[in-house]
Amino acid sequence: MRGLGSSPLHSRSPAKAAVRNAGPQEHAGSLRALAIIAALLLAFPAFADTPLPPAALADTQLPDAHQEAEARALMETLRCVVCQGQSIAESDADMAGQMRALVRQRIAAGETPGAIRKWLIERYGDYVTYDPPLSATTAPLWLAPLVLLALGAWIARTSFKRRRRERG
Amino acid sequence: MKRLMLWLPLAGFALLFAVVASGLFRPSDNLVHSQMVGKQLPKFSLPPMVAGKPGLGSAMFADGKPKLLNVFASWCIPCMAESPQLMALKRQGVAIDAIAVRDTPENIAAFLKRFGDPYERIGDDRQSAVQLALGSSGVPETYVIDGEGRIVEQHIGDIRAEDVPEIVAAVRKAGR
Questions:
Q1: In chain B, which end has fewer C-beta atoms inside a 10 angstrom radius, N or C?
Q2: Do B36 and A123 touch (CB under 8 A)?
């Protein structure tokens, strides 16, 4: 989806801009209004997206079905860098299309999915992958289930022990 | 021992509370920062974008002089907004090269005519290949590159008037 969050443009909060634009020359209000109307009439439409068509491999499958499946599986685990919550496989953002083309080109050239993921992580950080590698920040994520499982086993063991003792 | 165990759930809660609170109070940063900062520019060579202005290659950054590398496009509104600041940087003697992302020569020529031309070279990155290699997640972005072609800093988003002194200082520092 090309939603609100999929704009490739970096823009900061509009509130800040509004504060900046509020100048002290309030007396020139009517003149300014005229100027704004003139500017609106003169302005050519600015499209916030590229006029170019997407890359050839952005939306075209690879001829080799096995390679396409490999590329597809990788795309589903790569995050689109302009749309935050979507994988590049499901995003309509232009940048996601360019990233899909990059994945297909590299798979077709014989590169492994692991190497492509590594290349992207070197540039965008772990942010770009939905399959986060084990690191200091992700360690709790991986270890918490094991810790909870161990805790559960311990609680179960002590409570079973107690019950046995009560019965016996 | 039993006494101590009694406090364990409260300690657990306090820990969780601390984690959540620190997450709430940390200023939010949803920018995707390039991991290439501090590293050498990736190797690339781009053809010229407009007539009469050379294209751009990574080798051109190893001439001993620090530069700015501006990633921009004519279809990008914040790029229009930052153009006066780029002109101001140029007036202060900062060399600026550019990569035009997913654009056409006609559109770039019209953009330069309308908003001014602060660039020494402009490379045509039609397929955003170099943009991806730089770890850039959108336009505009500006990289400070030192004289050996190493990326020193990344400015994400349009350069505002208040950012200009900082960027000039970063370029001067990269030249030393």
A1: N
A2: yes
